[in-house]
Amino acid sequence: MNFNGKVLKYGDNVDTDVIIPARYLNTIDKKELATHCMEDIDKDFVNKVAPGDIMVAGYNFGCGSSREHAPIVIKESGVSLVIAKSFARIFYRNAINIGLAILECPEAAEEIAEGDIVEADLDAGVIYNRTTGKQYATQPFPEFIQQIITNGGLVESIRKGAIK
After folding, report:
1. Sign of CA dihedral 80, 84, 90, 96
2. Residue 109 and residue 155: Cα distance in Å, rounded?
3. Is residue 156 helix, strand or coil?
4. C-alpha closest to that of 142 among 109, 106, 103
5. Less packed terminus of the chain by CB within 10 Å, N or C?
6. pLDDT-based confidence at 143, cuts 50/70/90?
């Protein structure tokens, strides 16, 4: 499972209310919700993000409420992978459930900069910063989590018979 993209970087304690402000939760349209992703912390996010981009953040990413909307809008905006120093537990589980690849790697999250080009090989457990040439070791994704992400989430994996 490989990812390659330009980095959008954020700090510590980015909560779900910043990822998708509650004032927009009156719609179930994922594309509409994604137009408001990160707007309270980065007004230009929706203009900067491109399909395949990689979000990098600090500690406790996705803290706050347990809303599944947060990883949904990140994924729907085009972000393929989120690398952080750490994730809030409920965000971590919600991200896997909806098929958003996430990876904890404190060293990479600290050193990778906004705009860097990053490649991640989740089978091998390696993150490559193509801009700086630096490489980071991380835990490879277990096969069952890779299947969930590849299939577009837990529900889709079950629907396709990939997970029973």
Report:
1. positive
2. 30
3. helix
4. 103
5. C
6. confident
| Residue 127 parent element (H or E) | strand 126-129
Tell whether 164 is covered by a domain: no
Amino acid identity, position 89: R
CA contacts within 13 A on the Cβ side of 85: 16
Question: Of 28-32, 71-75, 94-98, 115-119, which range is least confident?
Answer: 28-32
Number of domains within the chain = 1
Query: For position 10, which CATH number holds?
Result: 3.20.19.10
Percent share of the chain, pLDDT over 90: 79
Burial class (CB in 10 A: 0-12, 13-18, 19+), 88: buried
For residue 42, the enclosing domain spans 2-159
The answer to whether residue 20 sits within a structural domain is yes
